[in-house]
Design a protein that fits this description.
alpha/beta; Elongation Factor Tu (Ef-tu), domain 3; Rossmann fold; 2 domains; seven-stranded mixed β-sheet; six-stranded antiparallel β-barrel; 5 helices; 15 strands
């Protein structure tokens, strides 16, 4: 069951650019959280809570990573160690790993890497072999390679060629080889290109959409799928790539 409580910030990091990581001591949430799930955060002066994916979990603490680009996330980025955050979670349906350890491929475009770090650690701990394609527009917007868990087979790419290969993450998809289990998070343009290159493979994607309540009551995050209308906050945020009607989706 989701937990709603006020939890203390134990540590704060600013790994690169406008990104921020808050480590929060939230044992009830950390114990139950699974990769791909999220929490909602109450921000002072704002009516709507802000949804944030779980970035990492360590013991009784969880890390929330975000870019300080809006009113809510800028407020969050200004919080200090020792202050308390109003969190509700874990929420949503997370990623599902195969029943037995095998090789899996993760694809992170831009900020899409934030929830995939938790997934990579979770999978490595369970004996999976993890490959990660990590991309961004420029080197300055690329998640630092030294923060990627040890044991991950990492491929880096930037659109301007300032670090790693030059191009988009979808340009490296032939690296998937015989991998049949693929997990992705990134912009809708990345997903649309992936549908053309990964046909016939099981691809789980995490959608980031505007949410209202975060618990399935307001219906504002509803999308159309081949299985009918689905609420991202409740039926997702993870979906099968082929299930989503991309021509009807606006992200």
């Amino acid at each position: 069951m989701p937990s709603l409580n006020s939890f203390p910030i134990r540590y704060k990091e600013r790994p690169y650019g406008d990104s921020c990581i808050l480590w929060v001591e939230a044992p009830e949430i950390a114990r139950d959280a699974r990769p791909g799930q999220f929490v909602t955060v109450g921000c002072d002066g704002l009516m709507l809570r802000r949804p944030l994916s779980v970035h990492r979990v360590k013991g009784e603490e969880l890390a929330l990573m975000f870019s300080a680009t809006g009113t809510g996330t800028r407020w969050l980025s200004e919080r200090k160690e020792g202050e308390r955050l109003d969190l509700l979670g874990p929420l949503g349906r997370g990623f599902e790993l195969p029943p037995s350890p095998t090789r899996i491929l993760l694809i992170g475009g831009g900020k899409g890497i934030f929830p995939l770090i938790f997934l990579s650690e979770w999978a490595l701990d369970r004996g999976f072999r993890v490959s990660l394609i990590l991309g961004a527009k420029t080197r300055e917007k690329l998640y630092p390679a030294h923060l990627v868990p040890c044991g991950v087979n990492l491929s880096l790419i930037t659109e301007d060629g300032s670090y790693g290969d030059r191009g988009k993450v979808t340009d490296l998809l032939p690296l998937s080889g015989e991998v049949n289990y693929i997990y992705a998070c990134g912009p809708s343009s990345m997903y649309r290109e992936a549908t053309l290159k990964l046909s016939g493979k099981e691809v789980q994607v995490l959608l980031e959409v505007r949410m209202g309540c975060g618990v399935g009551a307001c219906h504002c995050c509803t999308i159309n799928t081949k299985r009918g209308p689905k609420k991202v906050c409740q039926d997702g945020p993870t979906f099968l790539l082929d299930d989503i009607l991309w021509d009807e989706l606006s992200l």
